[in-house]
Amino acid sequence: MFGGINQMFNWMSDHPDFGKLLLRLTFGGLLLFHGEFKVMHGVDWIAHMLAVKGMPGFIAYGAYIGEIVAPVMVIIGLMTRPAAFIIAVNMVVATLLVKMGAVWHRTDVGAWSLETEALYLLGALAIMFLGAGKYTLVRDSRLQ
Question: How does pLDDT run across 14-67, given as a tens digit for each residue?
Fold first, then answer.
């Protein structure tokens, strides 16, 4: 019985390229909200946090690359793996700047305080390892 149910689900959902597209669209689309916030409010607050930690403030402009340019590249399938890597690096830097003290904390509902950051980091790594799949706006496989 369970084997038949499993076979039915395998038959219905064995579409890895569609799964890659869904992951890319969801991940990139949600990350664009973070980038839009940076466009509307600037990155001076990030530059200040960097300066407090003794790092140059111009690094803050990397948030535009990691939260606007790279997600758009992931969505359309242009250089998907390098773009996902950039997002992963961006998430590591953002986490170290903003939430490093929360590694062992939990929220009021019992969730890990860094679960959103972890989801974005591991999602970026998953996209990096999976690649774009066949559903992209970029037809040249060397540029996917």
Answer: 899 999 999 999 999 999 999 999 999 999 999 999 999 999 999 999 999 999
Closest CA to 74 of 111, 20, 38, 118: 20
| Three-class DSSP category at 139 | coil
**Count of other CB atoms within 10 angstroms of residue 125:** 15
User: Could you write out the DSSP letters of every residue in 83-114?
Assistant: HHHHHHHHHHHHHHHHTGGGTT-B-TTS-BTT
Residue closest to 64 by CA, chosen among 93, 39, 82: 39
Residues 6+ apart with CB under 8 A from 13: none
pLDDT of residue 19: 96
